[in-house]
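FIELD: query
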Amino acid sequence: MSTRSGTRVRHFWLHVIAIVVGAGVIVPVAFGVLGGFKDNGQLSNNPFALPSPWVPENYTSILRSSSFWRPLFNSTLIAVATVVLLVLVAAMAAYVFARFNFRGREGLYTLFAAGLMFPFAVAILPLFVLLRELSLLNSPLGVILPQVAFGLPMTIIILRAFFRTIPGEVEEAAILDGCTPFGFFWRILLPMARPALATVSVLALVASWNNFMLPLVVFTDPSWWTLPVGVQQFQGQYASDTARILAYVVLAMIPALAFYAVAERQLVGGLASGATKG
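FIELD: result
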């Protein structure tokens, strides 16, 4: 009985902690969503009450404005290009580190892994100078290429760990059937690594979508602003209209939340598979 009672107590406190953590996530989001349906008077007088009356014009006016759709297009373009290029390059590098033996392999892999200890903010000044010399300022490549470079260490580490779990017999059988090393990588290894590829893709997309500092430094042309920069500029333009700012922030979150909801199963499956095989 004592063991059963102790288990019930642990479960009770786990539920309490889960509810508190969930409330800490849901309450700010709900406040932002409902705040976007209010006017500034309602936010000032009774910020936690339901809107009365509801003011959908805050959302509809933003949806009719190019100040939302243009940054949305820019963020989508940069995020998708970053994910495709990063996953392709990192997968090829991880394949070499996982399946080929050569002198200096572990030292080179350690050099890549050391990139995790290099803060992005430290590199912003030399990175700006380099991009200026390469004429990549006000170009989406000026954001895509650095994001790929800074995302390589984590992506290579995740994919290499997954690739090493693929039995060597699979590769030997493919080679006996006439498959080249690149053919094995492209036609067999990548399809088998779909959960891991989905995991790193979600992580890369979210990191690109939320990146604020790099687009702020690279883009001086407003037509290339991404959503995080657009939120800041919108906040400066409507500093006295808090309700409209909340509506803009909520709309800016929806694409990333939608993508995460669609890819959640693959993300969890990839993490669980990596943990089980590791």
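FIELD: remark
The radius of gyration is 24 Å.
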